[in-house]
Amino acid sequence: MDTITAPPFPRDLEWVNVATLRTDQQLGRPVLVEFWDFCRPNSIRTLPYLKAWHERYAPAGLRVIGVHSPGFTPSAEPSAVRAAVRRLGVAHAVAIDSALEVWDLYGNLGWPARYLFDRSLTLADYHYGEGAYDETERAIADLLGVEPEPIAPLRPEDAPDAVLAPQTADQPGAYCGPYEGGGVWAVVSGQGELVANDRAFGVDAPGCLPVVEYERHTAGVLELHPGDGVTVHATCFTPGLAV
After folding, report:
1. What is the DSSP letter of 161?
2. What is the spatial distance between Cα 199 and Cα 183, in angstroms, rounded to a whole number?
3. Mean pLDDT of the chain, nearest integer
4. CA 7 to CA 4: how far, in whole Å?
5. DSSP assigned state of 158
6. What is residue 24's three-state secondary structure?
7. Cβ(117)–Cβ(34) under 8 Å?
């Protein structure tokens, strides 16, 4: 990793919460880059940690940059990204990477993905997917020369020693049928009502909704029915603690 440096951001990127950022202007401070998508449940589940790290470590010099690279049509529109940033209370810098330019520069492999660069903008740590929050925060603290107690896991399945059971693979569209996992999310757009196992959810913006949640890995049967005006782009399953 000690030979990989942060690629420069394309000049024509749109940004939220900051004026245009240049990579070379970040020299002298650690930089955490997170690829995310507001329509991806895994990104939404990771987001609270990014927000907490920004709040905790920005005063000490950390720059947190969320690169929003869309995986679904509803999250490709810049205005939708800006609205989602407001709705989700994201205060750190966000680059709108709708053409996946930054994604390609990094050779990124999925959502979420985070890359931590040291003060010389050399890669110091990286992680794909959920988890490893404790390890990332300790790496941040080490680069900053501080020693705080890491943020406590926000969910039991986020604990470093948690044992997770494999969940059902994500399904296109509104899925009905058997599944296993710790929870079920629907990627939606439009306006109206979505019914999941006889429970109704209001939809008024593109994004992802948790429609079924369990404390542990559970087997179940899903009935997911969008009403008029609502499109379900995918049904996603999140991991749960092994029984």
Report:
1. T
2. 15
3. 96
4. 9
5. G
6. helix
7. no
Pairing of strands 192-196, 177-190: unpaired
* Distance in Å from the first CA to the final CA of the chain: 37
Percent of the chain with pLDDT over 70: 99
Distance CA 29, CA 161 (A): 31
- Given a contact cutoff of 8 angstroms between Cβ atoms, the answer to whether 51 and 89 are in contact is yes
Which two three-digit tokens encode residue 52?
A: 């907490």
Residue with tokens 């179940």: 220
Distance of alpha carbon 28 from the chain centroid: 26
Contact 239, 164 (CB under 8 A): yes
Token pair for residue 112? 């979420």
Q: What is the pTM of this model?
A: 0.95
Taken as a whole, the chain contains a residue count of 243
Question: Where does the pLDDT of residue 2 fall: very low under 50, low under 70, confident under 90, or very high at 90 and above?
Answer: low
Helix, strand, coil tally for the chain in percent (to 5): 25, 35, 40
